[in-house]
Amino acid sequence: SQKIEQNSEALNIQEGKTATLTCNYTNYSPAYLQWYRQDPGRGPVFLLLIRENEKEKRKERLKVTFDTTLKQSLFHITASQPADSATYLCALVAGTGRRALTFGSGTRLQVQP
Amino acid sequence: GAGVSQSPSNKVTEKGKDVELRCDPISGHTALYWYRQSLGQGLEFLIYFQGNSAPDKSGLPSDRFSAERTGGSVSTLTIQRTQQEDSAVYLCASSPTGGATNEKLFFGSGTQLSVL
Fold it and tell me: What is the dihedral of CA B35, B41, B42, B45, to 10 degrees?
């Protein structure tokens, strides 16, 4: 079955640095991969989508890469701010004919002022 | 409405009781999803509705769980004979069509269910 792995340990970085989060998947080649942000007590909020034929996608201070050979996506936040502190989840559609997104367990990012 | 609305926001129940959780999706969205999130865990898919198609129930953990969607809009997730392991946040999401793998989901804030 499809497995999505994100680092379960929290990532602590200093304000202004670049945060890099990893998402690895197995057993399937998704056409798209999505990233969401989740704050405590709230539902996830969509951030970015990247297609399999795109190597990189940017949105303001966010950058996502997608390596279909390594089966990995990297999520970068440049010039990080304390307000970026949250849990970040990657998600993809696993399997053919099934449309519900499968989510990774998320990585908690803590940006220290 | 402006966003996905879930009610109640919190529900405390006793083991063995039945509970109903409600989700109002974004108006016009034909796809609706239920997920469950246990403390410190990722999202676990439960069930997916798309238009008039038969729902994808492959994620329901047991026959105590069921869901329906009336009139293609509001959905109710029912848990019968609740157990302590059912304690979690139940999240509902909707998307415009659910027919494309690139479609983003819009989530509600969830219902925190606590089974004593």
Answer: -30
Averaged pLDDT for residues B90-98: 90
CB contacts, 8 Å: A101 with chain B: 33, 45, 105
> Residue B24 pLDDT more than 90?
yes
Asked if B106 has any chain A CB less than 8 Å from its own CB, the reply is yes
CA nearest to A5 within chain B: B42
Min Cα–Cα distance to chain B from A67, Å = 17
CA distance A12 to chain B (A): 17
**CA distances, A44 to each of B93, B104, B106 (Å):** 9, 11, 8
The residues pairing with B107 across neighbouring beta strands, listed in sequence order, are: B93
Distance CA B32, CA A99 (A): 11
In angstroms, the separation between the Cα of residue B102 and the nearest Cα of chain A is 6
Mean pLDDT of A70-87: 96
- CB distance B101–A105 less than 8 Å? no
The whole-angstrom distance between residue B26's C-alpha and the CA centroid of its chain comes to 14
Cβ–Cβ < 8 Å for A108, A11: yes
Q: How far is Cα B10 from Cα B89, in angstroms, rounded to an integer?
A: 9
3-state secondary structure of B26: coil
Model pLDDT for residues A12-27, shown as the tens digit of each residue: 999 999 999 999 998 7
From residue A2, alpha-carbon distances to A48, A65, B17, B77 in Å are 21, 20, 34, 25
